[in-house]
Amino acid sequence: MRHGKKVAHLGRTNTHRKAMLANMASSLIEHKRINTTVARAKALKTFIEPLITRSKVDSTHNRRIAFRELRDKQAVTELFRSISEKVGDRPGGYTRIIKMGNRLGDNADMALIELVDFNEVYETAKPKKKSRRRGSKKAAANEVTETAKEEVETTEEVALPVDEAPKAEAATEAEVDAPDSDAATDEKNETE
């Protein structure tokens, strides 16, 4: 019986499974997304997320634990440099599993597992959640008026240099015309 045993064996021995997960985790760290089966993706998620959490605190102990699990020096370096910077403020959920359909050969359920912060396609700035408390309509109206004021200010800032340019051209034209009129009056005075 398997009561209380939640490890996905994936049809492999213990050492083979650990080696496979270490290789998949290194590939995920290097490429930021990999294609695999759904079962392997779920097992990889439970394998790599604690390592990413450990990478937030860059200490010798955490690096040694990550190296013990990954067995790849370059993957550990990448994990503690670029990945830990991007996920620094995220409290968890560093990976995303997207089901891709079935594989043609054996009809296995396929999935794409990727690091959430490294995806440019789903790059969405989450809007602030609106509270359902009283007075939220007033606060929302104030925010709308503030943003409208900011937009008006920015359009005025843009409009100012455009308005100044014709004035400057008109001033230069007036200066050019003025000496001509002085020269014309001097010529009239000489002829008389």
Report on this model:
- A hairpin with a 6-residue loop joins strand 2 (95-102) and strand 3.
- This protein has helices at 14-31, 38-55, 60-70, 73-86, 136-191, and strands at 33-37, 95-102, 109-115.
- The termini are far apart.
- It has five helices and three strands.
- The radius of gyration is 33 Å and the shape is extended.
- The protein has two domains: 14-118, Ribosomal protein L17 (50s Ribosomal Protein L17, Chain: A, Alpha-Beta Complex); 127-192.
- The model has no long low-confidence stretch (mean pLDDT 81).
- By secondary structure, the protein is mostly helical.
- Helix content is 61%, strand content 10%.
- A three-stranded antiparallel sheet has the order 1-3-2.
